[in-house]
Backbone:
């Protein structure tokens, strides 16, 4: 039988256990590493939101183009400056028999969720905030020139040879400046 003195047993136990200071040092190192990852994670999230917003702006422009192809006219019975609830109803549902008599769905959109965008009572909103409704400009006189379109957010106005323009100028979280997200780049 192997007998070890009590002092040796106690010494072995102390070698296998963490001290409180060692535990606190490990927690501090983990906290520092986590804090270094947060800006990178926020940057990746904002980049994903920008990509989603760009995709949605292009989808809206494509839906309006499909509407024009189907009915031979732009949805210009009303003057649209944003993708408001009336335009969303016309493009996304079969209920608007006055403006969409064939009941076609030109645009599929989900209810607004943070980071995903979608529709709500305001209209079709970008992924950054439930109040950032996409803006549109339609070339209703078919001149293929859009002059003086106010882009907002410090981007001023633009003259483009585009038939349909869709854009948003959100302020991504953690930044102080607006970002122009559009359907024509």
Residues:
């Amino acid at each position: 039988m192997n007998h070890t003195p009590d002092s040796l047993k106690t010494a072995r136990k102390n070698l296998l256990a963490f001290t409180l200071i060692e535990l606190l040092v490990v927690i501090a190192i983990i906290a520092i590493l986590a804090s270094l990852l947060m800006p990178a994670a926020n940057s990746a999230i904002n980049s994903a939101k920008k990509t989603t917003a760009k995709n949605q702006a292009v989808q809206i422009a494509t839906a309006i183009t499909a509407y024009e192809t189907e009915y031979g006219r732009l949805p210009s019975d009303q003057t649209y400056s944003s993708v408001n609830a009336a335009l969303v109803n016309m493009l996304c549902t079969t209920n608007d028999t006055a403006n969409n008599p064939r009941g076609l769905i030109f645009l599929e959109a989900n209810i607004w969720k943070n980071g995903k965008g979608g529709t709500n009572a305001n209209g079709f909103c970008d992924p950054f905030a439930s109040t950032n409704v996409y803006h549109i400009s339609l070339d209703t006189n078919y001149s293929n020139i859009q002059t003086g379109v106010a882009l907002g957010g410090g981007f001023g106005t633009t003259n483009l040879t585009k038939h349909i323009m869709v854009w948003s100028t959100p302020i991504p979280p953690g930044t102080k400046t607006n970002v122009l997200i559009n359907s024509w780049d």
User: Anything to note?
Assistant: The chain has three helices and seven strands. The chain has one domain: 20-182. The mean pLDDT is 84. The beta strands are 118-120, 123-125, 135-138, 146-150, 157-160, 164-168, 181-182.
